Amino acid sequence: MNPLEDISNKPDILVVDDTPANLRLLSKMMTEHGYNVRQAINGKMALTAIKAVKPDLILLDINMPEMNGYAVCETLKQNEETCSIPIIFLSALDDALDKVKAFQAGGSDYITKPFQLEEILIRIKNQLTIQQLQNKLQHQNQQLKTALSELQVTQAQLVQHEKMVGLMQLVAGIAHEINNPISFISGNIEPANQYIQDLVKLIQLYQHEYPHPPKTIQNMIEEIDLDFIVFDLHKIMGSMKNGVNRICTIILALRIFSRLDESDIKLINLHEGINSTLLLLDHRLKLPNSPLDIKIIKNYDKITKITCYASQLNQVFLNLLSNAIDAIESKLAQHQVEFQNPTIWITTELQDKNTVKIKIKDNGIGISPEVKTRLFDPFFTTKPVGKGSGLGLLTSYQIVVEKHQGKLDFHSVFGEGAEFVIEIPVHQNLIKSEAQSSF
């Protein structure tokens, strides 16, 4: 075995004592029993030695010049890097108050002089065993924390995956079911309008050719107010046509948002996805219990089609825009008079032809400092029970960062609003796998 490897595997013990005879005796004894021993004749030298190489255990005398053992121990315990080193005090002081002071300073054990070598060896072994068990316990605790975190993330992925699959299927199903009857109405509304116009012309021709109809017909004309019907029919048909066009637009937005009939990875128009999401959230732009509407300001750059998971990127837009609306509603609830201009800004930028940046900014309530550090934690939400699952931002982060190799960051001043910034590559080779399909 390499001698250097043998030394590195031995427990390292630092002996601090201002009496050379004690140093020699303790060093010889512990070296013979398989320990690697270093020496220090005062407190300052001990701190220097510990800073250079952290020992596994310290044997520390109390009465030393300039800096006594209590001061050395307190200094070590105040340092995060050295606070866990076990310290055994060696002292001729046998008073109970001295022992109490030693333990208050942070000592692990106390041996009075003159000491028995066997006692020192046993106490050293006990303290090293305790230290090893503590280190093992800390390692296991860290493994449990990591496992719990991974479990929470996996659970969040499964919950969000099932939720979004169900939502997408529902959206696609509704769009499909509505599409057929609306297509029928849309296709027949123009002929129906033409038939009505022809009938109106026929009635007008009758009125022209027979200006004095029988009394019963005249009474009916007055009763139904024929002139108003003729005037209003055109407006009614126009409103019906506008309504059908609106429904067709919503169906298209639903199909663009869900994209269930398309491949996962494809070239898409980014602005199409944002606009379809805004259309689905249009009803929320009219604030409840307020005459105010949320204003949407778009600043779109000229961006070519990008490669991405289209439906999942739409989920990100839906989550961020919904949160922006929630933040504005929260601010409105707290500042009914002062808050008069609720606004969401959506900006897209093409950077160096390789990266697209999407910014979604609002002037809502903002994010408090204590919430910022937990914003992407699984199941963490500041919303009331039933309004938030605590999965939206975590899922958005996973979609942007893990699936698209991008970035998701945010900036916020509490009380003034928040801005979320998405950066994703324009072109990328996205590999579809089971792990990636878990969102």
Automatic annotation (TrEMBL):
It is an enzyme of class 2 (transferase). Its EC number is 2.7.13.3. It catalyses: ATP + protein L-histidine = ADP + protein N-phospho-L-histidine. It holds the Pfam family Response_reg. Residues 12-128 form the Response regulatory domain. This is histidine kinase. InterPro entries: CheY-like_superfamily, HATPase_C_sf, HATPase_dom, His_kinase_dom, HisK_dim/P_dom, HisK_dim/P_sf, Sig_transdc_His_kin-like_C, Sig_transdc_resp-reg_receiver. The modification 4-aspartylphosphate is found at D61. PROSITE patterns: HIS_KIN, RESPONSE_REGULATORY. Residues 173-428 form the Histidine kinase domain. Residues 130-157 form a coiled coil. It comes from Lyngbya aestuarii BL J. Gene3D superfamilies: 1.10.287.130, 3.40.50.2300, Histidine kinase-like ATPase, C-terminal domain (3.30.565.10). GO terms for molecular function: ATP binding; phosphorelay sensor kinase activity. Keywords: ATP-binding, Coiled coil, Kinase, Nucleotide-binding, Phosphoprotein, Transferase, Two-component regulatory system. The keyword Flavoprotein does not apply. The keyword Coiled coil applies.
